[in-house]
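Please check this today:
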Amino acid sequence: MIKKLYGFSNSREIWRVIPAGEDKLLIEERNKKTKEVYFNCIQIKTGKTLLKSYQLKDKFWIGVEAVYNDIIFFHRFIKPDLPTHKDIIAFDMNKKEILWENNDLVFLTISDDNLYGYKALFEGREFYKLNINTGDVIKKLEKAPDKNTIEQFQNSALKDFCFSSIYSNDLELDEKIHDIIRAVKEENVVTGRVELLVYNDVLFLSFHVQGKNGKLNKLLNVIDIVTGKIILKRIINFNIKAFIPDSFFLIKNYLFVLIETKKLFCYILK
């Protein structure tokens, strides 16, 4: 059984969806015409808004490094046309205020309630350990944190997430799943690749089909593997000119679907 719980939309382009703790999602929206970026935080289970349309003084050239203990760590960009990060800005979502800012270092990772950052030099980098709540430098490190320390934080933030992968005949799947996918491709005259995700006895398929005037529609099918029955079917992008990847993901048994790039729907699997 699948049931829609809520939808999120401010009628702006949803740029990124970022893990923000055990029961929270941070949603980054961008308006490319006005060059403004907005940040929202919602509860995963209810959709309740915890932070709405927050903007920093720099309204566009801002991004998110991570969220930890209800603190968002923002970064700026060295130049508008370059993706290289600079600065660390720590924002408390509960107090709705900036806790601290460091204009000399770049965010690297978080470990044992400490933040690690680095200073880019002409040759190499200098690494520092900071107090995560105040931004005070605890010490300069002799070398970079090891790879496991860096990856551990990244992996822990995504531990409950499941993302789709690209289907191929060579994937090691139950033959029944291959049969279902073959049937879906034949029935829908699929154009391009098929994205899939398997969760317990449920199969999620996303794919493009030909629409009108040479444009494409992107569909999502959610299928009960045991019965072969489609339990959810909907168009998630209508009359698009190019292929759009990565339109859905799972957090535990919650399905999130990006609709027309401006809406995020949440369903629960029971």
